């Protein structure tokens, strides 16, 4: 009786969620096709992000150092023209497989402001590993002024600061598949998602149509990268698709540099806890068995 | 079950301490010899989990506070410093942020257990009320803790939630400014939230002591709801309850670790990795998941009732949904304690659990849709979140204010065993037949 009631209830609940969710989906599609024709609240993004297979996904996930190095190259040659990465010191680049000397040389490529010196003057000097990536603009206002009024976001945490709600029942499934790659999936989809606006969709002045953008049908950033723009020396394809993957992986690392350590520790903790639980359970069983009646 | 103490100090030192401060005696009587009903199931292990979580939160929090800077200019960066540069800082921080969620998961299961087995009924009213006080303190602590990283959701969540108070006529604005320490969420807000976030857990610990004290006076309930009558009804806390608790806690920790190590950001919101910006409102301001059912009820009130506008109405409904828990012992008119012997109550209880989860989901959805009338009579089923929220709110309050009082009058309970021992023996003899009924385990 109880079982029946509970299963009926869970069914009813699922059905309820399903109906409501179907409504949400429909709104999504409608928002894309008819834009804001009827004044209904449009839902963005128009398309859910594409799911990319990442090396760092799952319980044994780890970063692909080659890929991170390519991502760093893309960031320095392309993205860093507009996007800062203030929280990252150069020294952390050793995580990408570079030697101390390489990191030193990399840092020395940058001029950073230091000071004041004994005369009270600010001065420029070559970067050292403890310096952070210098920002392309002196302040947010300058960044906004140079970019149509919208300051390009900082990239230190962008790998975790973006993510599209997955909806029911996906968000339940995600608990079991350990899906945590909403950030890189979103970045990849955005970079590769630029396209011609469909018939009847007005793109505002200075906007670029992209159905993967989280907040609107178009965004101020033009397609940031083109095929063959960055040269890879490891033979990886020089395509927008590959660039997007590499830079997304790099940004995930930038946002979560201890991911590998975390998952490694997690595995040991899990093994311990499972064995511990098993032992406790057996102890409990034997104590209860000896209780007598 | 405060009875005679059976503690026997066995060494000279123990005797010496016992005559001066009988703390070992108290611990022995409360956690070793303390008799617990012999039929407790795993639904009774959430208290142990909650104790563990409180300790985890306080310990990790104390260390985090050593590295955290409560300044609007530096809070966000100091948290990132913890994540990046402090040794195992990422672990501490993820333990703490997910710990809050798991604290709430445990407390919701604990509350559901109390609802199912009628743990709030006489003579345990004060025990229950103290529990509701702890829950309220947890809500306040969790909310203020979420503000500390000074991300977008921190800032805007604080703005929205303190804004609720402005709904109250005359004093509302004063209360809001008192909470914020100014006219908007800013440095004074962050400072006082940090101070209170550090203070409240110790207040929780204090009320927990009272909660456990009250528990040890009345004794635990048990799945039959029949009070302990003889010695055969009980087993000593150690080793029986201790081991069962230890196993429950250990399994709970597996799930907790799953989140800390493999999906630490699943329960958070991506926007909180964007530094707070008073000039940019996020598209959707969503509170932490554990407040979502209440948030859904707040937003369900989209209409004015006489002099009460929808905003005040929503706030009243939200606060009322928690305040009502204080009156539970007197709203339930049934003489029977456990849902095991109350077929109708059991049904309504499970609907209540499902409804709460459903409300939680609705709380995360945008407040859109035609409302309840359109839902029921206009066929507006799709995406009518407001309508579903109103239906859920109605059931939430109906459960406490209508169903509970009336069921006690009309429901015919099943036969109740004379004693715990009888129930246990009955079950053992039946064991060959059907499986033993599982305890109330609501998943959140």
Key structural traits:
heterodimer; A: 293 residues; mainly alpha; Cytochrome Bc1 Complex, Chain D, domain 2; two-stranded antiparallel sheet; two-stranded antiparallel ribbon; B: 444 residues; Cytochrome Bc1 Complex, Chain C; 2 strands; 1% strand; disordered C terminus; electron transport (chain B); membrane (chain B); transmembrane (chain B)
Would you mind describing this structure in some detail?
The complex is a heterodimer of chains A (293) and B (444). By secondary structure, chain A is mainly alpha-helical. Chain A has a single domain (2-88, 149-284), classed as Cytochrome c-like domain (Cytochrome Bc1 Complex, Chain D, domain 2, Orthogonal Bundle). Chain A is built from 9 helices and 4 strands, in the order αααββααααββαα. In chain A, the strands form 2 sheets. Chain A has a two-stranded antiparallel ribbon with strand order 1-2. In chain A, a hairpin with an 8-residue loop joins strand 3 (208-209) and strand 4 (218-219). In chain A, helix 7 (182-192) packs antiparallel against helix 8. The longest helix of chain A is centred in the N-terminal third of the chain and has 33 residues, at 2-34. Mean pLDDT of chain A is 88; it is low at 22-39. Chain B is an all-alpha fold and 444 residues long. Helix content of chain B is 62%, strand content 1%. Chain B is built from 17 helices and 2 strands. Chain B has helices at residues 12-20, 23-31, 46-67, 75-84, 89-116, 125-147, 152-163, 172-180, 187-218, 237-262, 292-300, 310-326, 328-331, 343-363, 372-377, 385-410, 420-430; strands at residues 35-37, 234-236. Chain B has a two-stranded antiparallel ribbon with strand order 1-2. The radius of gyration of chain B is 24 Å and the shape is globular. The two termini of chain B are 32 Å apart. Classes of the chains: A mainly alpha (293), B mainly alpha (444). Chains A and B meet through helix 1 and helix 9 of A and helix 4, helix 5, helix 10 and helix 14 of B. Chain B: Belongs to the cytochrome b family.
């Amino acid at each position: 009786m109880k079982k029946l009631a509970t299963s009926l209830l869970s069914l009813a609940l699922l059905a309820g969620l399903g109906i409501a969710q179907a409504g949400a989906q429909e709104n999504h599609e409608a928002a894309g096709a008819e834009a804001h024709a009827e004044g209904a609240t449009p839902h963005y993004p128009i398309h859910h992000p594409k799911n990319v297979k990442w090396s760092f996904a799952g319980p044994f996930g780890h970063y692909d150092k080659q890929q991170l190095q390519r991502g760093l190259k893309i960031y320095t040659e392309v993205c860093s023209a507009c996007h800062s990465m203030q929280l990252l010191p150069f020294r952390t680049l050793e995580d990408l497989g570079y030697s101390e000397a390489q990191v030193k040389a990399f840092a020395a490529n940058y001029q950073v402001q230091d000071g004041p010196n004994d005369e009270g003057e600010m001065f420029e000097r070559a970067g050292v590993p403890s310096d952070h990536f210098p920002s392309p603009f002196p302040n947010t206002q300058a960044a906004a002024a140079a970019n149509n009024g919208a300051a390009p976001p900082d990239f230190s945490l962008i790998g975790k600061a973006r993510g599209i709600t997955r909806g029911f029942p996906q968000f339940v499934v995600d608990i079991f598949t350990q899906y945590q790659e909403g950030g890189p999936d979103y970045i990849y989809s955005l970079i590769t998602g630029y396209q011609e606006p469909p018939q009847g969709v007005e793109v505002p002045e200075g906007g670029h149509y992209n159905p993967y953008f989280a907040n609107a049908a178009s965004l101020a950033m033009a397609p940031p990268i083109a095929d063959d723009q960055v040269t890879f020396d490891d033979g990886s394809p020089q395509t927008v698709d590959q660039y997007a993957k590499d830079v997304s992986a790099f940004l995930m690392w930038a946002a979560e540099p201890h991911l590998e350590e975390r998952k490694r520790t997690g595995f040991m903790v899990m093994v311990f806890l499972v064995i511990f639980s098993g032992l406790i359970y057996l102890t409990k069983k034997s104590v209860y068995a000896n209780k007598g009646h | 079950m405060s009875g005679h103490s059976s503690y026997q100090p066995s060494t000279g030192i123990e005797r010496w301490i016992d005559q001066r401060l009988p703390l070992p005696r108290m611990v022995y009587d409360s956690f070793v010899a303390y008799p617990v009903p012999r039929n407790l199931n795993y639904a009774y292990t959430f208290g142990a989990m909650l104790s563990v979580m409180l300790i985890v939160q306080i310990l990790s929090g104390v260390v985090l506070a050593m590295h955290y800077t409560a300044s609007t200019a530096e809070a966000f960066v100091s948290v990132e410093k913890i994540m990046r540069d402090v040794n195992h800082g990422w672990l501490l921080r993820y333990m703490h942020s997910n710990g809050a969620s798991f604290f709430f998961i445990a407390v919701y299961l604990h509350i559901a257990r109390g609802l199912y087995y009628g743990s709030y009924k006489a003579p345990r009213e004060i025990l229950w009320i103290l529990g509701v006080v702890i829950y309220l303190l947890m809500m306040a602590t969790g909310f203020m803790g979420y503000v500390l990283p000074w991300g977008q959701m921190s800032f805007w969540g604080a703005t929205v939630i303190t804004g609720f108070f402005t709904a109250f006529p005359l004093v509302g604005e004063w209360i809001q400014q008192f909470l914020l320490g100014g006219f908007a969420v800013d440095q004074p807000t962050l400072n006082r939230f940090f101070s209170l976030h550090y203070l409240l857990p110790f207040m929780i610990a204090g009320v927990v002591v009272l909660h456990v004290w009250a528990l040890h006076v009345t004794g635990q309930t048990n799945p039959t709801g029949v009070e302990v009558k003889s010695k055969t009804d009980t087993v000593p806390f150690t080793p029986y309850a201790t081991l069962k608790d230890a196993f429950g806690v250990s399994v709970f920790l597996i799930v907790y670790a799953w989140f800390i190590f493999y999906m630490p950001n699943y329960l958070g919101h991506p926007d909180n990795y964007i530094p707070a910006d008073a000039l940019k409102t996020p598209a959707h301001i969503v509170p932490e998941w554990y407040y979502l059912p209440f948030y859904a009820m707040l937003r369900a009130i989209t209409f004015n009732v006489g002099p009460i506008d929808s905003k005040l109405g929503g706030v009243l409904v939200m606060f009322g949904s928690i305040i009502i828990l204080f009156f539970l012992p007197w709203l339930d008119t049934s003489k029977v304690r456990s849902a095991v012997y109350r077929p109708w109550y059991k049904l309504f209880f499970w609907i209540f659990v499902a409804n709460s989860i459903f409300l939680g989901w609705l709380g995360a959805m945008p407040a859109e849709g035609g409302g309840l009338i359109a839902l029921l009579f206009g066929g507006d089923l799709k995406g009518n979140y407001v309508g579903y929220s109103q239906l859920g709110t109605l059931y939430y309050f109906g459960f406490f204010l209508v169903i509970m009082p009336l069921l006690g009058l009309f429901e015919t309970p099943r036969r109740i065993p004379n004693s715990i021992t009888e129930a246990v023996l009955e079950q053992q003899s039946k064991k060959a037949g059907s499986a033993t009924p599982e305890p109330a385990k609501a998943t959140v």
